[in-house]
Specification:
Pfam families: 2_5_RNA_ligase2. It comes from Halopelagius inordinatus. It is an enzyme of class 3 (hydrolase). The chain is of the alpha+beta class. The chain has a single domain, classed as Alpha-Beta Complex (Cyclic Phosphodiesterase, Chain: A), CATH 3.90.1140. Helices cover 27% and strands 40% of the residues. A hairpin with a 4-residue loop joins β4 and β5. α2 packs across α3.
């Protein structure tokens, strides 16, 4: 099983995510994510045996308790890229500062601690709460992407975060499919 822990965006924001993606429609070399599967990854776990799911779920419950995060509102907006504007592999919209970013970061840090104790590798980069909206396969559209990121600051929407989810990612010819394996309430 290929697993990760996420905060899923509600269906009510699917059209807004799609509208954000549309700003990049003319950028060649971009592959858009399915707006109906939009999520914020709190912790990527990778390939795991199914017998580890109960331990991971327990770690998620401990992380939620440790983070002390109650349900909160998160505002999604703006654009960014990873790893840098010079070499773009991911285009994203983020969780705005002061509007869910601190809570999201606390959840990530607690999950990082709990899952590392289970033997999962710690993240090798700083956490930035974001929702991936596209992946850049080649640099043909890089200048357009850089311009849109620099010149626009869209509001995608605000939603209530009440749980985190353990998700299984299955790679298919049509793209990844995400299925919820477990849910942990805040």
């Amino acid at each position: 099983m290929r697993l990760f822990v996420s905060i899923d965006l509600p269906d009510a924001l699917t059209e807004a995510v799609s509208a954000a993606q549309a700003r990049f429609a003319d950028a060649e070399g971009l592959r858009f994510t399915d707006p109906g599967q939009a999520h914020l990854t709190l912790k990527f776990l990778g390939d795991c045996d199914s017998d580890r799911v109960s331990d991971i779920e327990a770690a998620m419950e401990s992380a939620v308790a440790e983070a002390g995060v109650a349900p909160f509102d998160a505002a999604v907006g703006g654009f960014g890229v990873f790893p840098s504007p010079d070499y773009i592999s991911v285009v994203w919209t983020g969780i705005r500062d002061g509007a869910g970013a601190a809570e999201t970061t606390r959840l990530h840090e607690a999950l990082e601690e709990q899952t590392t104790e289970l033997g999962f590798d710690p993240e090798s980069h700083e956490f930035t709460p974001h929702v991936t909206i596209a992946r850049m396969d080649d640099a043909r559209g890089k200048e357009l992407v850089r311009r849109v990121v620099r010149e626009t600051d869209p509001d995608v929407g605000t939603f209530r975060v009440e749980e985190i989810r353990l998700k299984e990612s299955t790679l298919t010819n049509e793209g990844p499919r995400y299925d919820t394996v477990a849910r942990v309430k805040l």
